[in-house]
Amino acid sequence: MRLTVKTLSGTLKLRGMTRKQLDAGEKITGEVHQKLCQALQKLAEYEDTGLSPNGVQAMLSLVQEQAMQTLVKLQESRERMQKTKGLYKWISVEEKLPQIGELCVVIAQRSRWIADYGATWLPEEEKSDHPEWTFPSVAYFRGENWDLYSPDDEAFYATGEKGPEDWEDLSTISERVIAWMPLPELNREEKR
Question: With contact defined as beta carbons under 8 Å apart, do 92 and 109 qualify?
C-alpha cells in the first residue's frame, strides 16, 4: 500500500496525516514519528532495488511488453486449439484402424494372468495373480498387430495377434490395443 498521497493541488502528504503536520516548526508526535519511519523504510526498500525512477519505468514497460507478447501467444494457442478441436479423439480399433506404419497414441489392455499358473510344485496361495490392466502407450500399427513401446525396455515390442482363447489363458500375458489417436501435429513435425 502506498504511504504517500497526492492532493488535488498536486502536493504530497503521508497517508493518514495532514500536510500541516509536516510543516517546519510543528511538533513531531508519536503518530508523526511512526509515519515518517514507515516512509523512510519504504524509501530504503526502493533504494535497495538499485533502480532510478527511469529504471522503474523502463522495467514496467518491459513487463507490459512481455505481458502483451504472452497474451498474443495465448491467443494464437487458443486459435490453434480451436482449429484442432475434435481432431484428437480416441478411435476404437473396431471402428477404424490407422495406416500401416503410423505411430499413434494408444490405449492398450493387458490380460489377467497368474505367475506360475499350472505349476504343481508351487502352492496356489503363493502364485501371483495379476489383474487385467488398461494403460496408455505409444505404438506403431503393423497391419496384423501393433508394436507397443515399453518405457522399461526403452524399445518397441510386438503384441502379436491374439485370439479370444489367448485372452482367457491365465498362463500367458496377452495385450491388445483397444483405441488409438494420431499424434498431435507438433509431434509429427518433430519426429521427422
Answer: no
- Whether residue 108 contacts residue 150, with contact meaning beta carbons closer than 8 Å, is answered with no
Tell whether 156 and 123 lie within a shared domain.
yes
C-alpha to C-alpha distance for 71 and 61, rounded to whole angstroms: 15
Q: Tell me which residue range forms the domain holding 63.
A: 4-83
Q: Facing residues of 92 across strands?
A: 179
* Residue 67 sits in the same domain as residue 102: no
Q: How many domains in the chain?
A: 2
User: E strand or H helix at 188, and its extent?
Assistant: helix 185-191
Per-residue pLDDT tens over the stretch 18-67: 878 878 888 888 888 888 888 888 888 888 888 888 888 888 788 788 87
Report how far apart, in Å, the C-alpha atoms of 145 and of each of 52, 94, 140 are.
68, 13, 9
* Tally of helices (H runs) and strands (E runs) in the chain: 4, 10
List, for residues 128-165, the tens digit of each pLDDT value: 888 888 888 899 898 888 888 887 777 787 776 555 56
Whether 73 and 105 share a structural domain: no
Q: How far apart are CA 173 and CA 131, in angstroms?
A: 11
CA 189 from centre of chain:
21
Backbone angles phi, psi at 88, to 5 degrees: -110, 80
User: Which residues have C-beta within 8 Å of that of residue 161, sequence separation ≥ 6?
Assistant: 144, 145
Q: Are residues 39 and 118 in the same domain?
A: no
